[in-house]
Each structure stands twice: as structure tokens, then as C-alpha cells.
């Protein structure tokens, strides 16, 4: 089984596809995923790129995805350390990186800057790996 940590962007894109998750994959995310996804959908509606109904449907699909949400003290401690190591002010992205380091095989993000920043820290996978049962 391949374990993927998905950030909010990747999780929302996966929810938008409506594709089933291959049985050989497991999705994980820090607990902050839900708040970040909610904010991203609200921003999309505010900017006019989605209707409120589309955003709510995408959030509903996200909530139906089988994503193991984690947020214990060990994760927070490792996220703090990673943020320090990478010189980040915020620990939000560091939580995804920490969870990948602690429990997953790959981080899946749509944020190219984040993917570049974590090279050599954790392994990343392209979004399409979530759809491929051979990954």
C-alpha cells in the first residue's frame, strides 16, 4: 500500500475529479486540511471562479474521501523543526511535510514552490499518482 500525504489543493482537485481512490493507496493529511480546504473554496467563490453550489459540492466530496487526518503532538513538534530547518515563518506547510516524513511514502501537492522547497527533505509524487493503482 502506498501512503500519500495530500495538501488541500491536491485533495480538492482529487475531490473534483470524482475518481475513486485505488484500493492500494491510503491518503493522509494533517487536521488543518479541512480548514484550508474550506478557506480555498470560499476564496474561489469570492473571486468568481466557482459558484457557491460548486464549492459546497466539492467540499462535500472532499468530506466523503477516505483521508486519515492526524494532528498529534509528535506531528506538531516535527513540523516546528522542519519549519526551522527550511527557514519558514509558518508551520502550515511544514505539517504536511512532517506527516510525510513520519508516516507516508510521498507528498502530493499542486504547489510547485512547496515541491521544490522540500526536495531532499521528503519524496513527492505528481497528482496523477493518486489515480494510478500501480503507484
From TrEMBL:
One of its GO terms (molecular function) is indolepyruvate ferredoxin oxidoreductase activity. Keywords: Oxidoreductase. InterPro entries: PIN_Pae0151-like. Its EC number is 1.2.7.8. The keyword Oxidoreductase applies. This is Indolepyruvate ferredoxin oxidoreductase alpha subunit. The lineage of its organism: Bacteria, Bacillati, Actinomycetota, Actinomycetes, Micrococcales.
Amino acid at each position: 500500500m502506498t501512503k500519500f500525504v495530500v495538501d488541500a489543493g491536491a485533495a480538492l482537485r482529487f475531490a473534483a475529479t470524482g475518481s475513486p481512490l485505488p484500493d492500494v493507496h491510503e491518503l493522509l493529511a494533517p487536521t488543518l486540511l479541512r480548514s484550508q480546504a474550506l478557506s480555498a473554496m470560499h476564496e474561489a467563490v469570492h473571486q468568481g471562479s466557482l459558484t457557491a453550489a460548486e464549492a459546497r459540492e466539492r467540499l462535500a466530496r472532499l468530506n466523503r474521501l477516505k483521508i486519515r487526518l492526524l494532528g498529534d503532538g509528535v506531528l506538531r513538534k516535527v513540523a516546528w523543526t522542519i519549519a526551522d530547518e527550511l527557514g519558514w515563518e509558518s508551520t502550515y506547510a511544514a505539517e504536511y511535510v512532517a506527516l510525510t516524513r513520519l508516516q507516508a511514502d510521498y507528498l502530493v501537492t499542486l504547489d510547485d514552490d512547496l515541491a521544490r522547497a522540500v526536495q531532499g527533505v521528503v519524496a513527492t509524487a505528481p497528482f496523477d499518482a493518486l489515480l494510478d493503482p500501480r503507484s
